[in-house]
Amino acid sequence: MIRFNLRLRTVSLFTIGQGVPDVLGADIVFSKKMKITAYVDGEAQTQYVVYVPGSSFKGAWRTATSRIAESYGFKSCGEIEPKRISEAHRKLGRTCDVCMLFGQPVSPLSPFEASKVWVGDFEPVGETPTDIIARVSLDDKTQTAREGALYSMEHVLPGAEFLGEVRVFDEAKNLLPLLMLGLAELRTGVLGRRSLVDIRLEDNGLLNGLVGSEWLPLLEGLRKWLWEGVVET
Ligand SMILES: [Zn+2]
Known about the structure:
The structure is a single chain. Helix 1 packs across helix 4 (176-188). The chain has five helices and ten strands. The chain is an alpha+beta fold. The protein starts with a strand and ends in an 11-residue tail after the last helix. It has a domain at 2-73 and 114-130 and 156-222. Bound molecules: zinc ion. Residues 77, 85, 89, 96, 98-99, 104 line the site of zinc ion (ZN). Zinc ion (ZN) is lined by residues 77, 85, 89, 96, 98-99, 104.
């Protein structure tokens, strides 16, 4: 098993809990969960913390990887629907490289059968800066404010950091370069999202010994933040 960490840093605002986490979706979702912080007189003291579900990150990573695979000589069926995936793989004569890494949805109940990549939840590093912004709901047709339609949304502010673990099965070692290319694509934010998250590889140089020397500059780049400063939204 190959293990390394990824550190995420928000570059723009992220709305907490926006959208439904989707294993095949393109968006990295920030969510909240209850965490036990201490026990006082046998009673658990709890607190809500912001985190990124591993499944949400993995879905976005898969989409980014699929997008760039063919440009670098790897194969991607580019499909998400089980029947069409089977059909595409049959034509290709094998399972495509993206499905080899991330698994293929064989049924709605086991969406990532045979996945070679495991992504843990991204836990907050230190305090997560958040902000609650009240918004007025607009009427879709007239773009005027509906009376009383005020709601609030909580955001993760730029600069929040999260740490998560990734495990890759040894048999997928030859696809590590594709996985890293997908990571590089993901942090450029070209997936059509308004929000940006930077990603840094923290592997203590481990991956250097597992890929060909032509990939070392890519790994070096991924060990540094891509984005400096913040994006105004
Ligand atoms: Zn495939």
